[in-house]
């Protein structure tokens, strides 16, 4: 995405991306409970173009639903690296913001944006479906304005992100081929 | 005299527990010596008919310097639980594995080995289970300082120290709302 000087095609592409967000809801925490009512008939998130994706390769938006243990952080990073650009991340709940009620837990990370770039944070414990929809709408605005550039940020600051990930995940780290293939990530 | 009281008398006679009492109506708790655990569980399983193994858990009695292992079994027809407890030394925690009696004990013992550091002698597979790359003190022990660990391993987000009590923060508006 060339956002320094967005042409008319980029504008059209962003408009299209905004209206078809395929969600990979990786249920790490209690936020996974809030997603079925968001998707089903009462709140009906499909009217915003949201729908579920089966695999990371098909998904545009990764929803991190709640606290992340270090063990699931490794899987989340791998999932995120498997997704194709353009890709967005939404973090639900206060646990992803500052640890929430797991602030002194030995196995829960405290700041998600140290490890992967986050486009939208939705505060609350747990956020209701209305809050999730509000987050989707603000993400759509960011996409339309060309500001949702998480993947670019990740690519440019890969050393910094990998350093942070290595600090918390330790020696038993992700293999290089998840991100370091020919032609860059 | 109902079934569970008769059972208590029989077990008291056979295994001479340090303590036996009823925490709940259908639960009998007996604390036996280390060498009597296998005998008590075998008796309950094969003679009394407590076929179902419910769970094994571990309690950390930090002040006494002991770990307490709790084996709970269930009688499906009489609808009665029995908790067989035993105390082991906290400094060098070791116990014999009972995985040959119920196979699910393998998993319970592996978890307790990981979370409390109790070494189960004869266990076929004492290896990493839930934690990954864990070094140092097992995290479920009571003298494990989680806050210290977090300060060493994670970064805080700024602003956390400015947390207010909701009562102080809302203040007069809350009082007014209460008065209505």
Question: Which features characterize this protein?
Answer:
heterodimer, A: 185 residues, Rossmann fold, 7 helices, 38% helix, B: 180 residues, alpha/beta, Beta Polymerase, domain 2, five-stranded mixed beta sheet, 6 helices, 26% strand, extended
Report the average pLDDT across residues of chain B. 90
Strand pairing plus helix content of chain A: what structural class? alpha/beta
Major sheet: arrangement of strands of chain B: 1-2-5-4-3
How many strands in all of chain A? 5
**Major β-sheet strand ordering of chain A:** 2-1-3-4-5
CATH class of the domain at 3-127 in chain B: Alpha Beta
Reported CATH architecture of chain A: 3-Layer(aba) Sandwich
- Largest chain-chain contact? A-B, 21 and 17 residues
User: Which percent range fits the helix content of chain A?
Assistant: 25-40%
Any idea what the shape of chain A is?
globular
Tell me the number of structural domains of chain A: 1
- The number of strands of chain B is 7
Distance between the termini of chain A: 15 Å
Distance between the termini of chain B: 58 Å
State the share of residues found in helices of chain B, binned by percent.
25-40%
CATH topology of chain A: Rossmann fold
Poorly predicted runs of chain B are none
> Could you state the oligomeric state of the chains shown?
heterodimer
Instruction: Please tell me how large the radius of gyration of chain B is.
Output: 23 Å
Outline the low-pLDDT stretches of chain A: none
- Biggest β-sheet strands, sense, barrel of chain A: 5 strands, parallel
Protein name (chain B): NADH-quinone oxidoreductase subunit C
Keywords (chain B): Oxidoreductase
InterPro entries (chain B): NADH_quin_OxRdtase_su_C/D-like, NADH_UbQ_OxRdtase_30kDa_su
EC number (chain B): 1.6.5.3
């Amino acid at each position: 995405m060339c956002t320094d000087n967005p042409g008319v095609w980029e504008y059209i592409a962003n408009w299209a991306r905004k209206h078809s967000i395929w969600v990979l809801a990786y249920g790490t925490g209690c936020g996974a409970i809030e997603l079925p009512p968001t998707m089903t008939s009462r709140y009906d998130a499909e009217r915003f173009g949201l729908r579920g994706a089966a695999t990371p390769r098909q998904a545009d938006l990764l929803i991190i639903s709640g606290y992340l243990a270090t063990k699931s952080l490794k899987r989340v990073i791998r999932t995120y690296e498997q997704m194709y650009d353009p890709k967005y991340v939404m973090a639900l709940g206060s646990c992803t913001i500052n640890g929430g009620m797991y602030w002194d837990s030995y196995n829960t990370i405290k700041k998600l944006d140290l490890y992967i770039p986050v486009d939208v944070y939705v505060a609350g414990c747990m956020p209701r479906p209305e809050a999730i929809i509000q987050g989707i709408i603000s993400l759509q605005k960011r996409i339309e304005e060309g500001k949702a550039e998480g993947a670019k940020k990740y690519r440019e600051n890969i050393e910094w992100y990998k350093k942070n990930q290595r600090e918390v995940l330790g020696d038993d780290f992700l293999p290089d081929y998840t991100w370091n293939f020919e032609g860059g990530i | 005299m109902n079934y569970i009281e008769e059972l208590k008398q029989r077990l008291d006679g056979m295994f001479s527990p340090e303590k036996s009492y009823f925490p709940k109506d259908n639960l009998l708790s007996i604390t036996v010596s280390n060498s009597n655990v296998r005998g008590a569980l075998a008796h309950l399983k094969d003679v009394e008919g407590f076929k179902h193994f419910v769970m094994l858990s571990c309690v950390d009695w930090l002040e006494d310097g002991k770990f307490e292992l709790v084996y709970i079994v269930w009688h499906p027809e009489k609808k009665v639980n029995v908790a067989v407890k035993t105390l082991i030394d906290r400094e060098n925690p070791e116990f014999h594995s009972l995985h040959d009696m119920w196979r699910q004990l393998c998993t319970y013992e592996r978890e307790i080995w990981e979370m409390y550091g109790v070494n189960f002698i004869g266990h076929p597979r004492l290896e990493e289970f839930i934690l990954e790359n864990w070094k140092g003190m097992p995290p479920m022990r009571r003298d494990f300082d989680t806050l210290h660990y977090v300060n060493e391993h994670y970064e805080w987000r700024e602003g956390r120290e400015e947390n207010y009590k909701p009562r102080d923060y809302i203040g007069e508006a809350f009082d007014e709302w209460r008065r209505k």
